[in-house]
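pls ignore typos typing on phone
iron/sulfur cluster + seq
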Amino acid sequence: MMRFAIATLGCKVNQYDSAMIEARLSQAGLARCDFDQAADVYVVNTCTVTDRADAESLRLARRARRLNPRARIIMTGCLAQASPEKLAAASEVDQVVGLARMDDLVRAATQQDVPRVAVSNLRKTKAAIDAAAVVPSGQTRAFLKLQEGCDQFCTFCIVPFARGTSRSVPPRQVLEILDALHHKGFKEVILSGVHLGGYGKDLSPSVDLINLLEMIAERCPIARVRLSSIDPEELSDEIIDLVAEAGNFCPHFHLPLQSGDDGILERMRRRYQTDDYRRRVERILDRMPDAAIGTDLIVGFPGETVEQFERYFAFIEALPLAYFHVFPYSVRSGTTAAKYGDQVAPAEIKRRAERMRTLGEMRRGQFMRRFVGTKLKVLVEETREPGCQRLRGYSRNYIKVLFHGPDQLQNHEVEVEAAAGGAMALDGTVVQSSLSART
Ligand code: SF4
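k done
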């Protein structure tokens, strides 16, 4: 049996796509193996959000070639879509297959005839969106991609060029997939998209995200529905109220801010100001005081002066956020910001990123410690924590908890009494589970 290996770079949407590739290649009769093993086919699902991601994608192709000089090496993902020529020029690479060309990828992997570079212009062709839920291996929570592509063109972002125009899965199909997940025993689903706030605008008749979420609140039997990243100006009061009242939505919001300075937000072509962002945060915590609010922060954006960074830092310091993802700005060729002259010195970007990350770690610790001594509902993952081998899982407000217990608790939501733990997780003691409830 032919063996394949996949390496995935980038965001949750890329993880989702890799799980789809894995499912399709397994259906085609290939067996999956780890990327550091000798395989007949290597698939690198690339990312192009930064120049470093480009370099990492090519490094993985070279590694695959060393692992098996006769293997077929297929590059897909955002770099393959945005800069196919860059990958095609690499001697290690056999095939470059763009996004939304799954059939071609499977043909390439099964040695059928496919052009060496198979890429469509996704800003011109309205490529279908692969509607299915996926579960990355070892995980208990399912991902459902509702939306693909983006039409916003923030000045630092290559995604609209790489992933094409915004496309959505129709509500009826979404509900059918959720029903199927429920019947397979899934207790949590993460609703994801490249630009979730753009959901439904391409459908006829068009549908707003809130309409879909209302249908899910009413008709989805899965107990834990988690929203992935949504832009601040698209998080309406109605969505916040629905999450607060529906009972099957998790009080967890990932709200990318990108910068805490209004002048920089304007240069990024973001569609809100810091006051708008603060009001969103206050509105969420007013309805759900225990909600987790996380964010993405770019530091060192072109033109960001020391004064602007200090204002930015002070703005973040004053916000009750639970965690941050900090991205040191790096020039992304093909974006508007790459043409901006006033680039910040790399050493200064590094210094600002370290300072922001330190604040982020402090905030994460403070947020977790608030729940020491309280009871949290945790969905137990199907794999134990490496090292201590304790059970692990996330609370509804996205706190990781480690605790002792039998394997039978896996994929069950249990109630744990939380206690102080490490930097990334609390300790816990099971006080209630559907199993103990049954006996
Ligand atoms: S909204 Fe902006 S940052 Fe997000 S994918 Fe679209 S262009 Fe990129």
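The pocket of iron/sulfur cluster is lined by residues 150, 152-154, 157, 159-160, 194-195, 231 (CB under 6 Å). The two ends are 46 Å apart (CA to CA). more later
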